[in-house]
Amino acid sequence: MATDTDSLVAPRETGAPRPRGSARSARSTRSARAAARRPGGRRRTGVAYLFLAPFLVLFLVFVLAPAVFGLWISLTNWSPFRATQSFVGLKNYIELFTPGSTTSGDFWQSMLATGIFTVASVPFLLLVPLLVAVLLNQRIRAGSFFRATFFAPYVLGVAVIGVIWKYLLDTQSGIVNHVLGMIGLPDNLPWTVDVPWAWITLVGVTVWWTMGFNTVIILAGLKGISADLYEAAALDGAGAFRQFVSVTLPGLRQVMTFVVTITILASANMFGQSFLLTKGGPGNTTRTAIMYIADQGLSQNNMAAASAMSYVLFAFLAIISIVNFRLQRERAEKSAS
Amino acid sequence: MTTVTSRPGEPGADAPEQPRRIPARRKQTPQQALRKSVLYAALIVLALIVILPLVWILLTSFKTDGDAIRNPYSALPNPFSFDAYATIANGQQPVFRWFLNSLAAAALQSVIILVTASLAAYALARLEFVGKRIVFGLIVATLLVPPVIFLIPNYLIVQNLGWLDSIWAITIPGAASAFGVFFLRQFFVGLPQEIEEAARIDGAGDLRIFLQIVIPLARPALATLAVLSFLANWNDFLWPVYVLLSPENLTLQPGLSQLQGAYSTHFAIVMAGAVVASVPVLILFFFAQKQIVESVATSGVKG
Asked: What is the pTM of this model?
């Protein structure tokens, strides 16, 4: 089995990323020993790296290198206007945690905005799709029409969503205020220019835009729950609500863990909705962390501070992810025992 | 609705023993009929919440500028006009050009991702090699890193490569898809290996096995990845806002934002831009909706 491919492989191996130089004999005995240790696996490092090469080049240049480079920038006084940079240690980080420094106030305000948006949006981005998915999972006609319709706004992209809702929610000439006025409600709500309305707008528009995305993932999870479980629950006398709690929710656990994780991360990375709908206003109340980091780093040329901010945001998201993961696992263990 | 008479333990524990006679539920009772109508009413209301704003935008885009400003609440354009479309076709904001730029960038990036990720995934799923665990570990680890980390350093890298304000800036850095490699690797691992082993005995090399056996078998996963990559690039907003500069090089997302800035109170024109940006995608979506929706659905179940 091995003979045919080996002849094909051997000449290529010289072109592999780890060329055999003077250390040839040492290396070949080492790999021979390694091969002897693992009898089943025939190592074909050369071929493997040829397959990996196109991806690895991109990965090294645009993922690994920038991750390290960004960390380095955050430890220097990097500026595009300076010819040389010098290492300043944790100065940029310390400044972020020093009240009264040039960026700390604005940065923490933007972190607060991201936090408010995440806390306010995630419940709706989970509950509305869960409800819609349960509706779509009933035996209904035109199910795929409804499913496609609810998903459709997602393919439009944030800019289309932003400009159309900016118009629909315009305080003076927006149709939303007009319709509210027709049914006897206030017709002058400042949807995009004052809080708390701006938050309601950002959450509402995000739900309208991305509802279908979570819905189809949850719906796939619902379809994976065996009908036998519902029958058994019904035989035991469980009503619709009880079935939902005892069969549907446990059956969705794995899918919901995934959906919760991606939804929190998506909300914490919110940028376009604020950029387009509220311009971060009023004041800077709805300017999110991403918006502030991008502005400081790429518009204000304050790259060192902005890099430090992005790592602080990363640390926050990592903590949230770990806590979320632990909670889900604990819950899974509790229900298993 | 129904009251719980007994507290069932773990549902399903005693299910297999039960004879299957439940489906013989009574014919549709008035109560069930009512439930059905409530269900449809809810779905129709939700569908209208999605559709009506889009219809409103479409109607507004056919108004004249003056009509849109004077009569913002009248549904029907009076007169029905293509003025707004003429303005964006001839104006400073080349919306149609942006559309082509978006299409080209999303297509090019998807192709690069499919080629590089499938090759890498094959190595990780099928070959034994030195450093495999490190490579796979790094790929998985970067899945959890938020994109903002790469924003500033990648901007500097792209700038140094001379790619600012070009299609390369919005296609190449984002093509390093750790998700794509991970997703395809999981799929490849699950494929049956018998055919590959038979081919190997017949003297086929890795490249032939990859191209003629694995790729055809992986078509559904590749289609899913293509759809997800295309949508992600098409919807990307933050990165193109900062790396694209000249009007003719913009993609739709940053372009529309500029259009809004240029014509902030000329709603008919901005809405015409939104329609040009939406209609082709919506048409594409309704033709391929099954594929697209199922791609997203499986990303949760398998990913």
From this structure: 0.83
DSSP string, B165-222: TSHHHHHTGGG--HHHHHHHHHHHHHS--HHHHHHHHTT--HHHHIIIIIHHHTHHHH
Residues A25 and A157 in one domain: no
Domain assignment of residue A84, yes or no = no
Chain A CB contacts of B291 below 8 Å: none
Inspect the interface and report whether the beta carbons of B22 and A164 lie closer than 8 Å.
Answer: no
The answer to whether residue B4 scores a pLDDT higher than 70 is no
Among residues B72, B88, B104, the one where a domain terminates is B88
* Domain annotation covers residue B14: no
The predicted-structure confidence for A288-328, as pLDDT tens digits, reads as follows 999 999 999 999 989 999 999 999 999 999 898 888 878 87
B22 closest CB neighbour out of A58, A235, A246: A235
**pLDDT-wise least confident of A237-241, B19-23, B39-43, B256-260:** B19-23
Determine the structural domain holding residue B42 and report its residue range.
Answer: 31-88
The number of distinct structural domains making up chain A is 2
Contact between B177 and B236 (Cβ < 8 Å) = no
Smallest Cβ distance to A44: which of B127, B174, B296?
B127
CB environment A111-133: b (16+ within 10 A), e (fewer)? bebbbbbbebbbeebbebbbebb
Structural domain boundaries, residue A274 = 104-336
- Of B3 and B127, the structure prediction assigns the larger pLDDT to B127
The answer to whether B100 and B264 are in contact (CB under 8 A) is: no
Residues of B within 8 A of A66 (CB-CB) are 149-150, 153-154, 157
Rounded-to-integer distance, Cα B285 and Cα B236, Å = 18
In terms of CA atoms, which chain B residue is nearest residue A243?
Answer: B11
**B196 phi-psi bin (left φ>0, alpha ψ -120 to 50, beta other):** alpha
